[in-house]
Amino acid sequence: MENILGSGWEVTPAGGATGDAYFAQNSERKLFLKRNSSPFLAVLSAEGIVPKLVWTRRMENGDVITAQHWLKGRELKPKDMASEKVTALLSKIHHSKELLDMLKRLGKVPLLPEHVLQDIYSRLDVELMKIPLIQQAVRYLQRDLAAVHPTDYVVCHCDVNHNNWMLNEEEQLYLIDWDGAMIADPAIDLGLLLYWYIPEQNWEEWLQAYGIELSDNLQKRMKWYVISQTILQIQWHKSKQEHKDMQYWEKYLAQLL
């Protein structure tokens, strides 16, 4: 990585699941580097949704390196997720024709509920499928499958955890880590955000600020996707042998059902 930056740069891993992200510093200059980011990053930068893209370079081995401004700021805390800034930015993302057109040009096709259910079938191991709670949750998803098709598909981030929302020193809000972005039902993002961070009595007001009404159909779709994602969370923590986290999500799933 140092080869493309020149002398004087100190490069350190930035963590993350893929191991392809780095921090680079040369005196007062700081950059965030990513290997093989999606071309989608350029549109996100132009829309002001992620920190500004500084440059993109292709290496001899075919890898593409992107450099963004190093964000001076902080991650949002769970209590921050009720802020108007979060509502406004998610609404901007979901209503952006530019983002949707770009994902279509990149070959993305809509994520249907059937695809989500098939993903669960393929990921769940035999041990987990024997648990009555998991069986009950899968039956719920199967039963309501026909009722959760939206009229609109939008660009969804698909991981609106508070750790992915960054506020800089000028109070500009960004949503980062777009590797899992999909064309999908907005209820995926809305459900996770509302269920995790917003008291249910405030959902109607929150959604009015976002730009839609809280209908029975939207409630059904949000719950369907939250249950599906919770099942996958349990499987993920089981595969990592993180038993306390697995138990936490099992208890949460029981509450949902």
TrEMBL record:
What GO terms are given for molecular function? transferase activity
Q: Where is the Aminoglycoside phosphotransferase domain?
A: 14-220
Record's keyword terms, sorted: Transferase
- InterPro entries reported in the protein's UniProt record: Aminoglycoside_PTrfase (IPR002575), CcrZ_PhaseVar_Mediator (IPR052077), Kinase-like_dom_sf (IPR011009)
What domain of life does the UniProt record list for this protein's source?
Bacteria
What Pfam families does UniProt report for this protein, alphabetically? Answer: APH
State whether keyword Ion transport applies: no
Please state what the protein is called: Phosphotransferase
Organism (species): Priestia koreensis
